[in-house]
Amino acid sequence: MKSLLLGMVCALLFTTADAQDSLPLMPMPASVQRGSGQFVIDSSFMIAVTGVQDPRLLRATERFLVSLRRQTGMFPLSMKISDGSPASLVVHADHAGRDIQELGEDESYSLTVASSGITLNAPTSLGAMHGLQTLLQFVATTPIGFAFPAVTINDAPRFHWRGLMIDVSRHFFPINVLKRNLDGMEAVKLNVFHLHLSDDQGFRVESKKFPKLHEMGSDGFFYTQEEIRDLIAYARDRGIRIVPEFDMPGHAISWFAGYAELASGPGPYAPERKWGIFDAAIDPTEDGTYKFLDHFIAEMAALFPDEFFHIGGDEVNGKQWAGNPKIQAFMLKHGLKDKGDLQAYFNTRVQALVHKHGKTMEGWDEILRPNLPNDILIQSWRGQESLAGAAKLGYRGLLSSGYYLDLMYPASQHYAVDPMSGAAASLSSDEKKRILGGEACEWAEYVSTENIDSRIWPRMAAIAERLWSPQGVNDVASMYERLDVVSLQFAGLGLTHNSYYEPMLRRIVGSEDIAALRTLADVVEPVKEYAREEQAVTPATSLSPLNRLVDAANPESATARKFSVMADAYLGGKADAQTKMRLRDYLTAWRDNDVKLRPQIAASFLLQEDDSLSRNLSLLGDAGLQAMDYLDNNQKPTSDWVTQQAAMIQQASKPSAQMLLMVAGPIQKLMSAAGGENPSNKP
Amino acid sequence: MKSLLLGMVCALLFTTADAQDSLPLMPMPASVQRGSGQFVIDSSFMIAVTGVQDPRLLRATERFLVSLRRQTGMFPLSMKISDGSPASLVVHADHAGRDIQELGEDESYSLTVASSGITLNAPTSLGAMHGLQTLLQFVATTPIGFAFPAVTINDAPRFHWRGLMIDVSRHFFPINVLKRNLDGMEAVKLNVFHLHLSDDQGFRVESKKFPKLHEMGSDGFFYTQEEIRDLIAYARDRGIRIVPEFDMPGHAISWFAGYAELASGPGPYAPERKWGIFDAAIDPTEDGTYKFLDHFIAEMAALFPDEFFHIGGDEVNGKQWAGNPKIQAFMLKHGLKDKGDLQAYFNTRVQALVHKHGKTMEGWDEILRPNLPNDILIQSWRGQESLAGAAKLGYRGLLSSGYYLDLMYPASQHYAVDPMSGAAASLSSDEKKRILGGEACEWAEYVSTENIDSRIWPRMAAIAERLWSPQGVNDVASMYERLDVVSLQFAGLGLTHNSYYEPMLRRIVGSEDIAALRTLADVVEPVKEYAREEQAVTPATSLSPLNRLVDAANPESATARKFSVMADAYLGGKADAQTKMRLRDYLTAWRDNDVKLRPQIAASFLLQEDDSLSRNLSLLGDAGLQAMDYLDNNQKPTSDWVTQQAAMIQQASKPSAQMLLMVAGPIQKLMSAAGGENPSNKP
């Protein structure tokens, strides 16, 4: 029963990508030409790997088989790597790629599926690995068996740097969480995993040279060097580089827990529990600082093989420097006018150390000062202007502004951000070449092992497409359609972005009966940008449980998005009878929900804060139904009604319990239309 | 929307165990006395472990904390093992228990929750570990926080042997699959994990003495000795013994792949691909056989520390022996009249070897012959009579008949089977003491890594309760109510008995739109007992994909069970208006489903066989609605209608695609009642 009712809704709301017309690929390849016919997969499926015999590619092919078996339900006893028999799929790479994966390696591939067989060709193993991932995205169930539809794909990425950063300092995530996210990254062809390994709240890597870093700076939650090496190998097997970040000179309180002498003010220090920007910063005026960093960077540069070494450099407020007479005297003596000059001095010395240990320095855009050498890399988080500005000054950069997943924006908003748009659009062609790509960031103040995947996926895939696919691939409806499909594929990889939700709701209610809460939860989103901090009654800390509705709610409400599309169709006169019925079903369900949720609100301490949201959703549902009645009956509401409802909407649109009711917008449109406004005038 | 509609159904169908009245414990403890008040869990939650400082218990306490953090969403930074501060929970065990867990160790515990604190006392670590699992089952969300309701529990198991057997030969399951099942076993206090490690289709353990056993007998799918040791340690940490089984002299073809000289007929042999009983058997007349077994048992007896060593012994058809003149001559010479005598001769010699290597022999009930020593253990699978018979002859036994999970019977049926019922009920008290308990068996002809958990859980928990709880705990409605709750808890442990379902349906349909298939899938069950083999058009083999609807369908349809309860209420005049509406909603959904599923059936090779089921479900829905119309309007159907519908029901009740439509029964009741029969006369 539940499935039937659910089904009726799904059938209406979800448009399945028709396998005969388009393939549900994400990121969309550079070129896709559909052929006729298909290659049918049966138990004799064999893969031959010709060309270079790269162990990494062989392992990737084995993993391809594991995935294909999972996707078809076939068994390991069939479907093998060929031992010479004629192959169903021939995977050919000319070269193995670099031992340590490098920025700019050839990642292109071509893939041809015909009814007689499949060929995958690539200059390097990296490209072949990407091609295998493409193939896994279009296994189809057909009348005669599982099959790959005939197609010719030629593909290569638009940008060389396609990254995801996870902040493992503010909350710690075990290796298995990182690994499943690497699996997700592989599926959408991302190639850089940036680990934000230290911050005020925690230092997360074992240091053998300075063991008090992890011993006193991590509360016991850190990665051993062995785990890091294993993770790097795991990432390399998936065509992903790992870039480590050790944030300095600010965001470094966790270092000071074990090494207070590095700080610019007296200790003692302990890992910070609160969130925000703190005064403490590394002392850039002491030679001891650079001796320490020389040894530290040497150790970490050896542990992390990647060319790039990220030194952070963001958000130094300079207060501890200003309060230290010795540092002030140093600045005076060296002609350093302000904290910016002092940080530039620090960066210059750190850059020399990074360079000494064979690495290229990377940092947030605050580090950009003209006296740094041109080979450093700028990660732009404060706006697209800084990216273009860096490129003009001769620096390479990548865009993170607009790709902050923790700000809870919808996929469409991230999707619209292009590294080459805005200020970058007017750069010269040489300057444009300095823009290497982009990186999504997941800062972890409000992220737990339980909900982290939902904070990254599936929205990450939209950014991955922006960074891989041609600039002209930007149809939002198509993006969401394919996102629905690949999101389910991610679940098959072990990502928990779907499965976390119901257990969290059950915990909040304290019962398996989560129907009413789910109706509410499905239409709310956490507040955007930094509003969660701004609206907190009691500031959250690293000890605060993340078990509230705001922690369970999806960053993007699919229900609200789909309701909004239907409401627009209705107001545009394009809704059929069924769509009208669905709109009314939704509104009725919302109107009637508060009565059901009320006893559960009384019974659960976690639900009490959601009282207003629940009441407001019922008011919205009621108002929406009334608006549809007016519209359907060609009647006009009284001006009292209009005024009253406008006040209600204003109230219901306000954040509550750090969440937003995402259906307030479309229902406001219904009410405005009922009140006589032209809907096309509304945003 | 979907959640609301789903919710309305759930709210009606699921009765949440009211935390104020009864605790959702499974297995139900021997004694539960509710108190008043509760212990509120906050971030200062501390556990002290007093008494014996057993590393196993300390690890169990750490794992308890991990689970409690998961259940509350609190963080590792709070909730700790006490370092001397006053504790919220005091765990006290007098003794650590044996280094190698033994049959009959004290597993009792007492647990008291008061508003001031929690105490858990047990004679051994085993009992304390069980108490921790009990505690995890009743964390409640309350108006003032997460809390344990006040209660006093005194608990001890009814039987010392509470087992689960998994056949890892017919299909191989990776270690992680076994581990998550051990987690489930721990949660319901099972204490024996029986690994059926060899059979015709595969030999699954590395042998260093006879490496061709795993090299040629496993298709590469076997456990290394290191993995086995790790698994044993994992099980021991959860209070679970591991009993290995090497089936002989029949079911041993996989041995012969590497060692054909052990067989009673000429080779060569390869691991069997088909299912069934085969002729090949170990040659019991050759001294070489016993030399081999002496070394083999020595090796495996050292690898598996448990006291018991299972030699199988089932289903020897004797044909290979009958066809071998040398063996026939041997039998004549030694006065062995038939295959039974010859197997008894074999068993006697094997028992001597098992004994020599320090173990107690266990076998299926076929091994029971009076000349074997009394310390062997009989696992009764062919009926309760053999269990009682063995006890009368002085042998210890355990019951598996009635606990075969692979036969796809409902939890209620297993729950009704009691080791002390049937023939055992009339045993003397000394004889009864020989009945050690029971063991559920999961044979793996039709089981994959994907669906194995669903074939075991949650039904296993009902058997676990039968084996742990007092004999008088047998309220089926209460069992199902609690099963619904713990089933969700199992999901939290990583068991996939719920999460496997939708991905399998999506694969069958080849789309994310599984609504119509789910409506059908929710009301079917795989055919029972051995009917899947009997009804196969083409016999399945170990190469057959397990990706059909019968592989996805749950062994027990919750929807059909709940519909049936509602239909009974309706026919008994006890249904309210809402229940009547629900019945009609179900019937309408079923009636209208075939039209929706039809295009998907045409598009998927995996759905084609489900054509009749889909049509029949629609006919059943239609007939049920008509029956309700007659009943609600106090009208009589024509005798033509009655005849016609009876024929339809008969058709719809037949297996199709190796599945049964489980709503045919309750709908037949509706039709019979409409036709004038007294429903109380119907079964």
Q: Can you walk through the features of this model?
A:
The structure is a homodimer of 683-residue chains. Chain A is α/β, with parallel strands linked by helices and 683 residues long. In chain A, strands 9, 10, 11, 12, 13, 14, 15, 16 and 17 form a nine-stranded mixed β-sheet that branches. In chain A, strand 10 and strand 11 form a beta hairpin. In chain A, helix 4 (175-187) runs parallel beside helix 6 (225-237), helix 25 packs parallel to helix 27 and helix 26 (639-652) packs antiparallel against helix 27. The longest helix of chain A is centred in the C-terminal third of the chain and has 22 residues, at 611-632. Chain A starts with a helix and ends in a 9-residue tail after the last helix. The interface between A and B is large, with 79 and 79 residues.
* Average predicted confidence as pLDDT of chain A: 94
Main sheet of chain A?
A: 9 strands, mixed
Distance between the termini of chain A: 38 Å
Rg over C-alpha atoms of chain A, rounded to the nearest angstrom? 27 Å
Total number of helical segments of chain A? 27
Q: Helix fraction of chain A?
A: 40-55%
Derived from helix and strand composition plus strand pairing, the structural class of chain A reads alpha/beta
- Strand element count of chain A: 19
Strand content of chain A: 15-25%
